[in-house]
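Many introductory courses stop at the sequence. We go one step further.
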Amino acid sequence: MKTIAWDVDDVLNDLTRAWFEQFWKPAHSDCSLHYDQLVENPPERLLGITRTEYLASLDAFRLSEIASAMKPVSEVLAWFQRHGSSFRHLALTATPLRTAPNSAAWVMRHFGTWIRTFHFVPSPRSGETIPVYDETKADFLRWFGQVDVLVDDNPTNTRAAGQLGIQTILVPRPWNTSQLTLAQTLDVLMESL
């Protein structure tokens, strides 16, 4: 049985869209950008803020009730309902240590029927000192050694996993170059398995 590693933010959920539309824009009425214009991730340059300001806002959102109430991406949930039992699944995300429990709870609440393990590579934050086992998702994948396919929205992650011989699926988002719809992407995933 093949094992699929799923990124959480912007793959299983629409974290960036929810953060931007429900958290950032209401507090910044002068922001005229639309979600589809976030062609860089992280988008601090587009927003005219520092990386520190962006991460503080994103982390506050991750700990909010709005984030906790996010719905799964409907097409992805439907894919799991149709095909999930045919494969093993794990969550592999990059999130700060302090927000990882919220992310794990969200994954288990919505995808726990299929995803049985949650793994994260801690995103570094100022003032936080923790042991570093893996600096990237590729480092984790190399160590873990059991993943056949990585589904992620970040081209850096998919390239690095591909170099390890892992099949990759790039989920279309404004900040990457995927020309497929999400439905087409999930069809490609099935074809690759």
